Amino acid sequence: MLLELRNVSKVFGGVRALQSVSFDVAPGEVLCLAGENGCGKSTLIKIISGVYRPEPGAEMLFDGKPMEGLTPGMARSLGIQVIWQDLALFPEMTVAENIAFERNLGGRPRLVDYGAMRKIAAEMLERLGVGIDLDTPVRELSIAQRQIVAICRALIAETRLVFMDEPTASLSQSETDALLAIVRRLSADGIAVVFVSHRLAEVLEVCSRVTVLRDGRYVGTFPTEGMTQTRLTELMTGQTFDQDVRAADRTANPVVLEVEGLTRRGDYQDVSLTVRRGEVVGITGRLGAGRTELALSLFGMTRPDAGTIKLNGQPLRLRSNRDAIDAGIAYVSEDRLSLGLVQPQSIADNTVIPVLDRLLGPARLLSERKKSTLVGEWIKRLAVKIGRPEDPVNTLSGGNQQRIVLAKWLATEPKVLILDSPTVGVDVGARAGIFAIVHKLAEEGMAILLISDEIPEVYFNCDRILHMRDGRLIDEYLPGTVPMGRIESQVHA
Amino acid sequence: MTRLSTTKSSHSTPWLSRIVTLGTGSEIAGLLMLLAVVVLVFSLATDRFLTVPTFTSVAFQLPELGLLTLAMLIPILSGGLNLAITFTANICGLVLAWVLQANGGVEAGMPAFLLGGLAAVAVGALIGWVMGAAIAYTGAHPILVSLSMMIFLRGLGEFATRGGDISGFPDFVGMLGHGWFAGIPMPLWILIACVALWHLILNKTRLGLTIYMAGSNIEATRYSGIDTKRTIMLVYTLSGLMCGIAGILMLARFNSVRVGHGEAYLLITVLACFLGRVDPFGGFGRALPVALALLILQVISSGLNLLGANQHLATAMWGAFLIAVMVVRHIWAGRSVRRT
């Protein structure tokens, strides 16, 4: 074994983040470290990379030799590298400068040798079989390209073990495939890769074994052969999920949202769709297909060049999202971190912000009583787990944050709810909870538009699925009548 | 902002979340303690400190700086800054001075003063509105916009006054700057009223809540259906309006107007905001702790004055005190973070 860990524990201020975890990696192996947010994955990686010290009693061997008093510098010199999800690149510096950055570290001041840096960077890209212009600033690259730059940087040293934290979270399917090809290449070169990912399908595809953590405990290490997504989810969450197609024919219901010939040049063309009362309509397609752009126009954030939007038969003219909200359209953004919630502000304020008018009391001043009633009511209705309503909203888990986003929009009493990738950064276990809410809303008569690039998500939660590509709706599928695999291959074709 | 940890969102430095969790109660308690310490130190240093004249000097000197600090507070909360506050106040003072002079100078009556005061506040609000509109619609940085405005106003004011003083106002105007009402100096009444107004706006109105939200993340606030352009314009309009009130008070206190008066206050107002636990990146901070912070600074200044310290040394002491507070706060924060 390349890396062997036994009995690794870590306590933070009385909270047990890890409890006697075992973990091992063979040379050149591709292993998955799976578990929900907060299960201890990051803590484990930080211990292995020397950021944290484990509690006494831990046994950690690298190449059969004990690693004691490990520091980040030592871990790196052993050949252990971590690529965190945020990549930690320098956006204003070029590809070459980022890849060969470590060359410039050291005690003594010396001049930067750009020629050597370019040479090293070019070799690295060559090794991965990727062509990226060396002189482009990193901020101009796509996320997939940045990912590759980060990998190259990690490989500069004599790397033997690479951790990749959620490397595919923001990649499209084809980009993911390209990345997985690189992972296989590294593995063939004898470099072990530990993959941390939420996307179970790709985990099962690329990894030979999967180590599962739950609540800081070691659940086990399993071969991926014969493992199913459902089984893995159960191991990660400790719960069982039954997924059934819930699609039904709702053509008897009245049309709530009707879009006709909607066009915005460069974003989407000639989009026509309807959503009926109580219907959940999915829009899927690859990243960049124009899904979010369409949603933003329906929400009044951008103006279409042509076409009409009708709500309950009435044509809408949306000059701002306030118009859309007042008309009864709500939009849950795909970017919860920077657009869905005002992050460091309180749970309460985030819940009431779209409906401040309803909190006015005497002399048009905000009424604390009305505010706490409204917040309390929604927290109860959506079963959000919070400390106090005054706590910053970023103290909540991803799933509970998303419930606050839903609460905030449901408080506006919308007729149409647009959900844009509502489970990004939400644990597998918490996802089911989010969709339970969505189904209940649909049963109560809300018209719901669900945008997602995860096919199972739309397949199991929608009545109809619309396929968007290059800004156009090109196909429609009815879950249950078409097998999921066929939709997947259509979308990723 | 520096990245302290890779797993945290960039918005939440521990320092910031601490402000949030501490809440207003302990903010005020901490500042009251600090005030008590400062008062104690000076009373031990000199027996002339705990006397009525000290109180009077604080009460008369505090309001100018106080009003300008309020004018700075709202832009900072919204994630911006208004560097034009002192010159806006000067220009507003000039407006009032001209109205008074046009109506008889020393002989001018109350109606002329009311008209002039209204015009001064209106001009202040207009200056603020122009800055707000520029920031909201062009997306230019508030520092650049307000700096440009500051230079414009300074040049305009110096051109109009040829760099000199304008004086000669009716006696009752002086009452506003030197008079007493119900045992409390008039300027202090004005400051108390303005702090109360700001407290009300920030804590009890839709606009106030919106300012805090926009200060933390203006895009997310806009996505929540708030007209953030309007919010930003109102922020700077209110700031300019408060400058107008400060300009009137400065005219009344000195019985003259000179462009450049109070210029040294500009950076002190920023520091007073931070001492009052306002987040330099916007989104967090309250009016009352800022008022307390101002009181502490003024007590230090008056105390040093009593001890016979040089005026310049007093300014140096302010700076040293603020640095000390930041360091102590940092050490304290480190402890409490480790404890939780």
Automatic annotation (TrEMBL), chain A:
InterPro entries (alphabetical): AAA+_ATPase, ABC_carbohydrate_import_ATPase, ABC_transporter-like_ATP-bd, ABC_transporter-like_CS, P-loop_NTPase
Keyword Repeat: yes
Pfam family, one: ABC_tran
Domain ABC transporter: 3-240, 245-491
Keywords on record: ATP-binding, Cell membrane, Membrane, Nucleotide-binding, Repeat, Sugar transport, Translocase, Transport
GO molecular function: ATP binding; ATP hydrolysis activity
Top-level division of the source organism's lineage: Bacteria
Protein known as: Sugar ABC transporter ATP-binding protein
UniProtKB/TrEMBL annotation, chain B:
Membrane-topology annotation of the record: Multi-pass membrane protein
Main location: membrane
InterPro entries cross-referenced by the UniProt entry: ABC_transp_permease
Keywords for this protein: Cell inner membrane, Cell membrane, Membrane, Transmembrane, Transmembrane helix, Transport
Localization in the cell: Cell membrane
Membrane-crossing segments per the record: 20-42, 54-74, 81-100, 112-136, 180-202, 232-252, 264-280, 287-307, 313-332
Any GO CC annotation of this UniProt entry: plasma membrane
GO molecular function, one term: transmembrane transporter activity
PANTHER family attached to this UniProt entry: ABC TRANSPORTER PERMEASE PROTEIN YPHD-RELATED, ABC TRANSPORTER PERMEASE PROTEIN YPHD-RELATED-RELATED
Annotated protein name in UniProt: Sugar ABC transporter permease
Organism whose genome encodes this protein: Skermanella aerolata
